[in-house]
Design a protein that fits this description.
The complex is a heterodimer of chains A (327) and B (330).
Chain A: E1 3-5, H1 6-20, E2 24-28, H2 44-48, E3 53-55, H3 60-71, E4 76-80, H4 84-87, H5 91-98, H6 101-104, E5 114-118, H7 134-138, E6 144-147, H8 151-163, E7 168-172, E8 180-182, E9 196-199, E10 204-208, H9 212-225, E11 230-234, E12 237-239, H10 243-253, E13 256-259, H11 268-279, E14 289-291, H12 302-308, H13 312-322
Parallel strand pairs in A: 2-3, 2-4, 4-5, 5-7, 6-7, 10-11, 10-13, 13-14
Antiparallel strand pairs in A: 1-8, 6-12, 9-11
Helix pairs in contact in A: 1-8, 3-5, 9-13, 10-11
Chain B: H1 7-32, H2 47-54, E1 62-65, H3 70-75, H4 80-87, E2 111-114, H5 120-134, E3 141-146, H6 153-164, E4 169-175, E5 178-179, E6 182-183, E7 204-208, H7 212-227, E8 233-238, H8 256-263, H9 267-277, H10 283-306
Parallel strand pairs in B: 1-2, 1-3, 3-4, 4-8, 7-8
Antiparallel strand pairs in B: 5-6
Helix pairs in contact in B: 1-2, 1-9, 1-10, 2-7, 4-10, 5-6
Classes of the chains: A alpha/beta (327), B alpha/beta (330).
Chain lengths: 327, 330
Amino acid sequence: MRTIPLRQALREAMEEEMRRDNSVFLMGEEVAQYNGAYKVSQGMLDEFGDKRIIDTPISELGFTAIGVGAAMNNTRPIIEFMTWNFAELALDQIVNHAAKILSMSGGQFSCPIVFRGPNGSAGQLGAQHSQAFENWYANVPGLKVISTMNPYDAKGLLKSAIRDNDPVVFMESEIAYGEMAEVPEEEYLIPIGKADVKRNGTDVTIVSYNKMMKVAMTAAEELAKENISAEVIDLRTIRPLDWQTIAESVKKTNRLVIVEEQWPFGSVSSEITYRIQKEVFDYLDAPILRICSADTNMHYASNLVAAHIPDVPRTVKLVKEVLYMKK
Amino acid sequence: MPTPFGKETYLYWYEIMLLLRKFEEKAGQLYGMQKIRGFCHLYIGQEAIAAGMMTAIRDDDNVITAYRDHGLAIAKGITANACMAELYGKATGCSKGKGGSMHFFSKEKRFFGGHGIVGGQIGLGAGIAFAEQYQNTDRATICYFGDGAARQGMLHEVFNMAVLWQLPIVFICENNHYAMGTSVERTSKVLDIYRLADAYDMPGDSVDGMSCEEVHKGIDRAVRRAREKGGPTFLEIKTYRYRGHSMSDPAKYRTKEELEEYKEKDPINQVLKMILDSKWATQEDIDLINEKVKTEVEESVKFAEESPLPDDSELYKDIYTDENYPYITD
């Protein structure tokens, strides 16, 4: 099978859906003539023209609102944010408007829109360009939230998101746009709301998503060298949360570690922990442990960045803790 | 005063404005009786804007506004019954009892809502217009907001893009002189709000909002421009709300004289005078209209009273279009 980078997988998803449905358009900063700040939309202007690939001024609140309004009126916008950090300027439109149009109108006006862009840290970018927001949006009824850096999953999920009749928050990763993976030429869809077991194991379950999946998978490899068999689950969708897949795994492994890039307070791991202790309490042989980003702002210095984000050694250490192994 | 408008137009204006006025007076009463709850912003005094708009647009044009939405919703064709039922939070309301006073909607009437975040609908309106342009229609979108919203960043971002993309939209600032309790003079040095359009090379104009004729003319010009691919227009329509910002506002920040000054220019009285002076109707004809409107409002109250509340199961409906969405329930 061919191997393509994440940015191409995302682009193919948008191109295929735009060929399939004329009501789909892409709007955002630098998406057209510049070919995308991260080259996700490279070449799309040439194929679809400036009516459907639309450069905007730097007005996140304004163009997000235009997207939401257009979604209320028989079109299917894809709104690209250069990063989810900038989407904070448009939070009012995503939370107060997109998520509420259907219910406020008593079901009359739906809002089929995709908000997408890179999320989380991407090197030494400092405090304002390094945040992970999955839990913010996952808290909001009316939104669906997808977060992945896996090219195969990203393509299938983005296609589903574009076809979805409700607003979808779609989070990618700047540093993963070049990430290569096998992606079939043939069309496929991946349903929203389904986690995926990326590695089978028996001793412990590690749950993660987006680029922390790399940490989780590498940790699993390290653990394997010590004959510890870790099962690794990629959430892929944050809301709705596929806790059943986690629960099934925990019934087998009896231990759960969560690795994520969120800040700890009220994070995705908090929600998973509540759900799993409630649903499969009797199967747990150890407290659920997690590793989040540090409960601080991101600093610039390289050592402080490294200390801020979850890593393999600390993940391995947590796994050993839930296995009650000597550290 | 010579007028290009005829008998039918004036009679329509009179009846629709009277309906809006009487509906709102009743809503105010019912609010006092706690039949209507939540926030409630009455349109009394601003009726000429809704009336003048309706004779200037087509039925299939789009309207979106803020939370002071009762008048525009009824004028756009949502029935008094559906509006009153919505105020009561009943299942027969125009938003199934899920919106309330601030969130009237009708997809059928192309009324894109009542919105509660000041200025948020400026961008939505531009998006609705963008979708019309995208779909190659000749529908215009009329997007309302108040003088308070004119100070939101949204206006500037969206005005800029609306001109850049020549969107078929008419932005209307209903300047009733007070953003809740703060007068326009206290919010900016730019008191001629329509001049904000100048910064973006958008045609802008000031319109007398106590005159149906002037409102019609202003909106008619702007709608034609939108339909003929001439891009957006910004109209500042100067009006006055006779009541406070919402039901809980005694409006102590303004003088009685100022209120009386506007009441003397009351659009319903002006239109009625024109009708009677022109002998387009007798007092008996007018009495019949008055009676019809009174009955319509009374019936809407009866309809709302007798309508059922939404079923409890509606709690988990209309959040997602997917009826099988797995809500967290514990």
